[in-house]
Amino acid sequence: MRHFFDWYYEQRQPEQPWLILGKGPSFDRRQDYSLGDFKLLSLNHAVRELPVTAAHVIDIDVLDACPEAFKKNAGILVMPWYPHVRNSVGDKTLEQWAADIPLLKSLNAQGRLCWYDLRTSKRRHGDRPVIQATWFSAEAALSLLALAGARTVRSLGVDGGASYGKAFDDLKGVTLLANSHASFDRQFDSIAQIILKTGVDFAPLTLDSPVRVYVGSEEPQMLAVKVLEYSIRRHASMTVEVMPLHRADIRFPMPRDARNKPRTPFSFLRFTIPQLAGYRGRAIYLDSDMLVFKDIRQLWSLPFAGAQLLAAREPGDSARKPQFSVMLLDCDQLRWTPESVVGLLDSGTLTYEQLMHEMALTPAVSAAIDPAWNSLERYQPEQTALLHYTDMDRQPWVSTRNPHGHLWVEALLQAIAGGFIDEALVREHVERGWVRPSLLWQVRRRKARLGPLQRARARFLDRKFVAPYRQLLT
After folding, report:
1. Residue 319: which residues within 8 A CB-CB, separation 6 or more?
2. What does the alpha-carbon distance between residue 122 and residue 361 come to, in Å, rounded to a whole number?
3. Taking all residues of the chain, what is their mean pLDDT, rounded to a whole number?
4. How many angstroms from the chain centroid is the CA of residue 364?
5. Do the Cβ atoms of 206 and 158 come closer than 8 Å?
6. How confident is the model at residue 474 (pLDDT cuts 50, 70, 90)?
7. Quick one: average pLDDT of 14-34?
8. Strand partners, 327
9. Facing residues of 292 across strands?
10. Which residue among 84, 150, 168, 363 is least enclosed by CB atoms within 10 Å?
11. 354 CB-near residues (< 8 Å, 6+ apart)
């Protein structure tokens, strides 16, 4: 009986993307895609619907439901060394089960049974990496493939929610959420951690990927950009690309009328996004002074419903106009160019206020983004999806006075601990006068929250610091 990694390495075939097949509703769309482009790995009962390269099962009970399907459709069967029994880790090894169950005995004799160590058991069989599965089997499958060396993995039927596809109607009263969880959504937290740790390119087959995030920025804000990027990736259940717009190789001409000139160096750069995206697919725009707390897939997958651009609305009955610091853009429909934008300003067709505060460049704007995705200096645990630090005097990298500043510093410390940000970057930004000196002092002491004495120390360290935006005003 081989370890899954040994089987994987023995294939010695050109790298081919993998597709994980679950029982969620999107499985019913499998006819819409060319599955022959992938190696297939099925989860549990999905093996009964089509031939797959590998069938993955954690719970031994699944084998009783469709034994003939595993014989006929599975190239190999992959299971933990200590399989689960009725959703709890068992005491018997896979080797012991293979001696008792004819299906396993037959597959093992044919070299079609593979094992791995699953974290749910405290006992280990080998010295290979232990596979994590906190909630559902899709996590274990993705971790297995990523750690084995697969670089591109897609999924179909791994949807979240609390329902199966029509192909599995007969199982709804038998296996659906039989582990007592309220929905399949909890798996996405673990999937995000797998992507972050391994770098595997993962996304649902039903969504455009990767998630493309363009950030309004300039070089003194790059530490804030990196913390924002980390906060996105920490929660993202699919692969993300983040582009600081000031580093894009696109020049923006200046309007002739001084009243129409950009208020910041990156004000107009958001209008280069469709061009940078090749005028195809979706794109997200964010400002750099933000922090994300939820899966950006939620924002990425919003329907346009006839609109070309989605903006964030304000909560409740607020009369405030939609906010364009968070946007989802349909780049297929938005044919913006720097020259055309400035041309509208120069001709008097648009004013600066219409361009920037009404997004009048496109008439098909919808304030369809939940205000939780642009929470202006407001934070509610478990509810806020994106915190926007709009008070420039109190942004956490220039001040210790923001009541939610510790959240940003916590994210910075986590990014440093995880190797995503080097402490040297913080030191460099302090030396350049781009962030407050006390931030490096906090980082070295791993202190996100400051007590009264520590605040006094921070004020002393920052006594000569002048935020970059204030330097521009003097």
Report:
1. none
2. 59
3. 92
4. 27
5. no
6. very low
7. 93
8. 285, 311
9. 386
10. 363
11. 360
**Cβ neighbours around 219 below 10 Å, total:** 14
Statement: the pTM of the whole predicted model exceeds 0.85: yes
On the question of pLDDT at 176 being above 70, the answer is no
What are 322-379's pLDDT values in tens digits? 679 999 999 999 999 889 999 999 999 999 988 888 888 888 999 999 999 999 999 9
Structure tokens given for 345: 């300003």
* Cα distances (Å, whole numbers) of residue 459 to 244, 372, 398, 399, 471: 31, 32, 11, 9, 19
Residue 428 CB-density burial (10 A; 0-12 exposed, 13-18 middle, 19+ buried):
middle
Q: What is the pLDDT of residues 102-139, one digit of tens each?
A: 999 999 999 999 999 999 988 999 899 999 888 789 99
The one-letter amino acid code at 383 reads Q
Distance between CA atoms of residues 379 and 279, nearest Å: 35
Contact between residue 29 and residue 156 where contact means Cβ atoms under 8 Å apart: yes
**Residue 241's beta-bridge partner residues?**
212
Q: What is the average pLDDT across 293-318?
A: 90
Beta-bridge partner residues of 286 = 215, 326
Paired tokens of 97: 């089960």
Q: Which of 49, 67, 406 is nearest to 57 (CA)?
A: 67
C-alpha 128/C-alpha 149 separation (Å) is: 13
Q: Answer yes or no: are the C-beta atoms of 195 and 64 closer than 8 Å.
A: no
Q: Is the CA virtual torsion 179, 183, 185, 189 positive or negative? A: negative
CB 58 within 8 A of CB 118: yes
For 343-358, the pLDDT digits (tens) are 999 999 999 988 888 8
Long-range own/partner contacts, residues 82-88 (CB < 8 A, 24 or more apart): 82/118, 82/120, 82/121, 82/123, 83/57, 83/58, 83/59, 84/58, 84/59, 84/60, 84/120, 85/59, 85/60, 85/61, 86/59, 86/61, 87/59, 87/178, 87/179
- Record the tokens describing residue 448, joined without a space: 């996100």
Q: Does position 392 have pLDDT exceeding 80, yes or no?
A: yes
